[in-house]
User: Fold these one by one.
Assistant:
Number 1:
Amino acid sequence: MGGLRSTQHDCGGGVSHSLSFLLGALLPTVLLFFLASDRVDEQLSSISTFRFGNGSAAHQLTSHAASLPTDVGDGADEKEESFPGLAELLPRVAMDDGTVIITSVNEAFARPGSLLDLFRGSFRDGEGIAHLLNHTLIVAADPGALALCEAVHPHCYLLQVMAAGVSSANGFLTRSYLELVWSKLTFQHRVLQLGYNYLYTDLDVMWLRNPFRHISLYADMAISTDRFNGDAEDLTNAPNTGFYYVRSTNRTVEMLRRWRAARSRFRPKAHDQEVFEAIKGEFVGGELQIKLVFLDTALFDGFCEYHGEMDRVCTMHANCCLRLVTKLHDLRNVVADWKRYSSLTPPEKMSSKLRWTYPAKCAATMKIPA
């Protein structure tokens, strides 16, 4: 998954005929490798261009908080936002291949017993994924969320959003909700500029198994779906920006810039997912030639296209669900179901008829038939 490395060798003069023949035979394979992933050269370029572009290290370390204006996406993307301390924090969070898991939280979601507790608990209860919490960066939208995050998690970052009401359980498409979702995109853009891949996950996604095993090595971007039509490259799939992976290259840095800038082309209440759905074809078919892969809901499950099976699923997302209290109710059922399943022996799991509890309360908020 992402993060490909390469080493250069000095192949000076005096190469034998047989060695030349061997190198000639290997050349197509080497070319295929580098065509499949432009990560190495572009990451080096990104690091040299951006990692030191925010001024001195002393300036970056004066605070571990960044503030964003509420007009992000309508021209502000042409400016170089400052993210103090981020360049120093990311190496401590990233995996060996330079990948960081990112989620975002406000005070309402971070309170004890709320989504943050369920999210972190899912890693501990999952199959061999507890270590991935060490590579998860939780981005707090307000000081209250930061304090609650720091009480339970080692890697927290304050990205203070300057909009009223960001600390509460924001209703869908309210002004504070929109500023939260667009500010996370600004932050992710900076992560790519610094040369890191990221997997963004909403806090209402329960992690059960390692999702990286099912993300294509060749994908520039792999995104979850509300509904999956069976073809991972078909643009008619319905993407969900609550869970997606982006590999850091010059092309994906530009993709994020264009995605943010496109906000101004749409209605004032357009959120990041709506804009991405409308312009994803521009990224794939345009000059950027982004390799976009849609993730199968049988593996990356959710309440929109609900599957009952428990033997393969990597994540469960409380999508197609309104109101925090409703999400919490149905996700607690998910957690209880998973614990029952996990307590079985391997032979019992193979013969088990256990299925996920249907998310009835969430379905009722969307009027989804059972």
Number 2:
Amino acid sequence: MGEPYKGQRTKRMDWKLEGSAQKTESRVLQEHEITLDDPGDDGVSESFQLLQIDVGCDHWEQETLPTGSAAWCSKNVQRKQRHWEKIVAAKKSKRKQEKERRKANRVENSGIYPQHSKRFLRSLIKERLLEAKHSGPRLCIDLSMTNHMSKKELSRLAGQIRRLYGSNKKADRPFWIYLTGFTTDSPLYEECLRMNDGFSSYLLDRTEEDCFSLFPLETLVYLTPDSDHALENVDLNKVYILGGLVDESIQKKVTFQKAQEHSVKTARLPIQEYMVKCQNGKNYHSEILTINQVFDILSTYFETQNWPEALKKGVSSRKGYVLRNSVE
């Protein structure tokens, strides 16, 4: 190849001179460092280590110092970091929305402004319930048919009692509840204590006495889906009875026959009058509801005097019925 340019030779010579100068300077520094320290072996090794650290730091600063903070991380790490930040932000937003939803539900369900303390709300609920005991509508849960129920059925019934009582506490015009045929040594009582926190302090009446001997028979109305008479309104002079029966074998007309044995009036919810059957995949239609669903209908009607609105709250579409207006 041709002879290198003069400029290239000059650069090479400058580089060699610069390298030689750096080596000489390094040797001088090392000799100077050794001379300054104690002549012992420990002092020499310590000084040499310090010199190595300084040189290493200078080398690191020259070669690896980033121009920006992002240069420390690879693109993959940055991408993962952004992804994680999005997840954290989404969780925070979801928690905030859930908190606002619960707050809105509390306002809607209680009908009271949320600035009131829990103590005030408890005292207000107690006042309403005690007022219902003297002048409100009365509802009796007949628990005299639980002897032949399985533990699973008893657990379901205990859960229904809990939900019924919870709905009654939220009502602006609550009912006064009686649990009749209810003994403290029964499996149902033990199940209620186990499943329902604070059950022993529920504001309602518990009695071992049968509902048919506790009230005058002419004041009783047994609510059963097998009745021929539709319930028209909620009368404060009547005592409405719900059969506390969870029967997975579905024995028909149990509560209806019991009412007839005691010559007590019967009534059914006006589902047939305000609702129609709707088509579904299983062709399933049933007017049998849990006691808390029946209570929600009675309570809503007592407050609104509107059967369609009350039935809509208690009868789900899974039962195979919808309101007539919705079909039309």
